[in-house]
Amino acid sequence: MSKIELKNITFGYDTQGTLLFDQANLNVDTQWKLGLIGRNGRGKTTLLKILQDQLVYSGKIIHQLEFLYFPQPIKDSKQLTYYVLQEISEFEQWEIERELNLLQVDPAILWREFESLSGGEQTKVLLALLFIDAHYFPLIDEPTNHLDIVGRKQVAEYLKKKRQGFIVISHDRSFVDEVVDHVLSIEKSQIELYHGNFSVYEEQKKIKDDFELAQSEKLKKEVSRLKKTAAEKVEWSRSKEQDKYGRASEKGSGAIYDTGAIGARAARTMKRAKTIEHRMETKLTAKENLLKDIEYIDLLTMNYQPGHLKRLLTVENLQLNYQEQSLFRAISFELNQSQRIALAGPNGSGKSSIIRFLLNQFDGGRQGTVIRPERLKISYVRQNYEDNRGTLLEFSEEQNLDHQEFLNNLHKLGMEREVFQNRIEQMSMGQRKKVELAKSLAQPAELYIWDEPLNYLDVFNQEQLEQLILSIKPSMLLVEHDQVFLKKIATQIITLNK
Q1: Where is the ABC transporter domain (predicted)?
Q2: Which terminus of the chain has fewer CB atoms gathered within 10 Å of its CB, N or C?
């Protein structure tokens, strides 16, 4: 049994001006299957880079096993997959074939060019490479992005059966819930370790947050009461002091008053007021130490503009094909106002092709009928959005967006204001995804077509989208593999079959 120890780790990017980690300490058993979670930009991938000694930090990291990161960089994707993997790590052919069989992948895939593999196939062969050598500790960063529902279940089963530990980052809550036995949460003021899966983390985090909210409310009321009492005593003391001097002047005229007793009583009252103020400051300090790690989820806005038409799409016996080979069996459905239809099916079954066809971007053949109103206002979230470029102002002007609404949603999605000054092409993939999503939310639309909207988004962003969609009830056609999300927001799921 070996350990990974982090001692007083401190790190922050110069451009951000704040520390991501400040004197962080952590002990990890290398047999743990550890889920690493936290808001986008909180430092999940940064922590993996620190473990690999790719960033300059202060503190100390002690570890016996070497780290191996997923996804591994590919030097030449035109090579056969076997040789691509050999350039990353040495192995025997039977070893990689064993892991591929466990992942339910035909080992013949090794003798195809790497670039010819689907995203899901590339993910699986690179994952297989992680677990050949037990002298490495895998760091797995977003493995589910290119996996369909079946692929996610296969990878989850594969990871569950591994005796070897790892750290995994994934936006898919059910996937993380299934494969991890510990959760490391990067919170606003600290990193915190939870023993259990994602459901245990959510439950314990909620109990902790609810307790702190109750304590904060209790302290708030107590501070308010103490403030009022202290103010009353100070006011009484001042009035008696004034009364003492007034009566002292009257004493000179022959009246008899005990001004000494009045002054002593006023002094005692003032002293009690000072004691109350000290108690109040103590409770204020206690209140300030609460709520530091509660994640506040701001409500997003959506420029949904439903028209007078009830039916937005009618699809009858639709089949799409490339070179006369059908992608799926004929499907029929109707999409009415406020309905949210999800297209489901394995990778390569034609889900994104249907979207491209509806947007007049499909270059294959088709059979069947699609009826939709002319001038239907559609807002589209794409899987690939690398062509988004320029500053946020330039981008919003080019897309004819309300710039303020666009920025507000970006900030609510967790993008820091200092990032607003960066060019889009210089942003992280998570930040670029938020730009694509915030663009869609700001566009006036009668129908939203979203192709895998949750890729690169954290669980808090997903909750934001769920709340928004359930509140606004927009008309939507979407492709998404996250079952928790679909169960909450989809009114109908259409599964594509060969």
Answers
A1: 4-213, 313-498
A2: N
How much is the pLDDT for 108? 95
Q: For residues 445 and 476, what is the distance between their CA atoms, to the nearest angstrom?
A: 10
In sequence order, which ranges of 162-197 are alpha helices (DSSP H)?
Answer: 173-179
**Residue 162 sits in the same domain as residue 17:** yes
The letter for the amino acid at 397 is E
Q: Is residue 298 part of a domain?
A: no
Nearest CA to 8 among 55, 61, 74, 50? 61
Distances (CA, A) of 402 to 118, 205, 302: 37, 37, 12
Q: How many CB atoms lie within 10 A of CB 50?
A: 21
Strands 331-336 and 311-322: antiparallel
Is 373:321 a contact under the CB 8 Å cutoff? no
Beta strands in 277-326 (DSSP E): 311-322, 325-326
CA angle 332, 335, 337 (to 5 degrees): 165
Closest CA to 88 of 107, 68, 102: 68
Quick one: tokens of 228?
């009022």
CATH code of the domain in which 358 resides? 3.40.50.300
Domain count along the chain: 3
Q: What is the pLDDT of residues 434-485, one digit of tens each?
A: 999 999 999 999 999 999 999 888 888 998 999 999 999 999 999 998 888 9
